[in-house]
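Sample entry (158 residues):
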Amino acid sequence: MRLTTKTNLATRVLTFCAVNNDRLVRSSEIAEACNGSLNHVARVVQQLQSSGYIQTLRGRTGGLRLALPVNRISIGAVFRLFEADIPFAECFDAEHNTCPLSDTCRLRGYLTRALDAFYHELDMITLDDLVRGNCGLNELLALRPPVADGCAQSGPPD
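Predicted structure, serialized as tokens:
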């Protein structure tokens, strides 16, 4: 399984906004810090904005910021937003499926269960879990020097 560039950028955009939650940020700042093209970042920002994850303000002093608290942004929901239109395998796309095995193949059922388990795990992760206490991330993405207290390295649970 491989995530699309849009999903990857969406996670980076939200992470950048979370790290810099005290100010408006610009798409160009995100593109530079997160190694993405401004055009791709702009498209992802538009989709995140229309889905209610970020707020955008136009104009010379405009920018963007999170529309929800970090503990209410589910990583699973964000992944679904960007991955839902892309079928995992040909047999998952009823309109374009040409596989002659579809009616008798058992693999699709196993893949469905595996995808459900994948999203279930991601549903339990919030944006807060990714950024809270992550000093390395703060050092990489903060537009201002990170606050020292409360910043401890943390990683995924064992």
